[in-house]
Amino acid sequence: MNLAATITLFGALALIFLAGLLVSRRNQSNTSFMEDYYLGGRRLGGFVLAMTMSATYGSASSFIGGPGVAYNEGLGWVLLSVIQVATGYFTLMILGKRFAITAKKYKAITMVDFLKHRYQSKWVVLLSSFSIVIFLFSTMAAQWIGAGRLIESITGLSYHSALLIFVVTVLIYVTVGGFRAVTLTDSIQGSIMVVGTIILLIAIIISGGGISAIMNDLQAENPNLITPYGADGTLSPMYVSSFWILVGVGVVALPQIVVRAMSYQNTSAFHRALIIGTIVVGVIMLNMHLIGVFARPILPDIEVADTVIPLVALEVLPGWLAGIVLAAPLAAIMSTVDSLLLLVSSTIVKDIYSNYIQPKAPVKRIRKISMTVTAVLGLIVYLIAIHPPDLIIWLNLYTIGGLEAAFIWPVVMGIYWKKGNKYGAIAAIITGMISYIAFQAFYPQPFGMHSVVSSIVLSLIAYVLATYSVKDKQTVSDSLT
């Protein structure tokens, strides 16, 4: 165990934990319990909105899995990852003010809530809820696993003990604090992520003897490591380009990101979030993946790629500083998993229980059920994460693609195409979800691209054909006129 790193890491974790609890006690608003618990009362400022989007998007894959793949593949994976720089900009620009205004008019608290009011269909709600629960369980498991491996690498504890410590910490402050606690801790965590990334990059360049020396070492080991095509030449231009859809434009359909685009306070906050969010994501994504590549000459024999970041941080930094820097990936994981927990919880409580099981349930009962469901979900994911795969990034990318294929057209067309109806939305969700699972199982790279591209195209065709094929008198939403 590295004692100094362990103390500073858990010290940072404790500060974030206390901040979340304090803000949940101080900031009680006059909005309803569910609007406050799941959406922070729609009062996020520009900085908080930018940081919570960046921190939520920056997950275990960005800080643990992605740099691990970059360690194996070289600069080709860095090129692929920088696509994510414009993710925050794309998301806010595509959804835009129109989405936030429409969601507020509908009094929507979740993405499914928005779809319910837009399409006026029970089946759209049930299909959306089912898709979210299925795919996000895998995403949450990936975050749990990343945190367990990170704490295990630093403290020397067993994987299962490290996992248990992380799960208990997150469950307490998410269950008690709700969305407002999550967004405040996201702001702290986002700041730690930026500073920690820069410190680690500088330290690893110095330790490697400078960028030129590192490049020479990489070329001497395998010339492909410094080309755009990957260590074995498998990163084709078509495949890399398709990642523009998966981790760029397609992110607009992720429920955990969509809910943030309906929670900002005013236009000024929206514009400020556009700029800050793009800069923060750019700094984190580019530099963390460069760190993964630059770590190879310094520690050339790492077997489990997910452990590259904690091991190289302990190698090139003093123990106490490594603990603080490694709070960055832990912060990213915390901010992603707490948001996902709230999202799945709100899907079950708000979209299913309150809509179809007990619409007139008192606030006290809703509060109790919301907290209980959040805690139970966390425990279920903990059980899933007990037996982890070798590289968590593939688990994370799989679920991201599934959600994008199911939701991108019901959300985007629901905002901008008045003729779009519930039959189109149902057809798009079913086609996107089934085709994506089928492609992943039997034909993972159709036409040399990631399968999410083909699934999104099929989903769009299904949406348009079903809308034109089946008339619906309630299709045109008054709020879109």
From TrEMBL:
Matches recorded under Pfam families: SSF
Membrane-protein topology: Multi-pass membrane protein
InterPro entries, A to Z: Na/Glc_symporter_sf (IPR038377), Na/pantothenate_symporter (IPR011849), Na/solute_symporter (IPR001734), Na/solute_symporter_CS (IPR018212), Sodium:Solute_Symporter (IPR050277)
Location of the protein in the cell: Membrane
Transmembrane intervals: 6-23, 44-64, 76-95, 123-145, 157-179, 191-215, 243-262, 274-299, 319-345, 366-385, 391-416, 423-443, 449-470
Record key words, sorted: Cell membrane, Membrane, Transmembrane, Transmembrane helix, Transport
Domain of life, source organism: Bacteria
Family annotation (PANTHER family): SODIUM/PROLINE SYMPORTER-RELATED, SODIUM_PANTOTHENATE SYMPORTER
Family from the record: Belongs to the sodium:solute symporter (SSF) (TC 2.A.21) family.
Protein name listed in UniProt: Sodium/pantothenate symporter
Organism of this sequence: Gracilibacillus caseinilyticus
Gene, per the UniProt record: panF
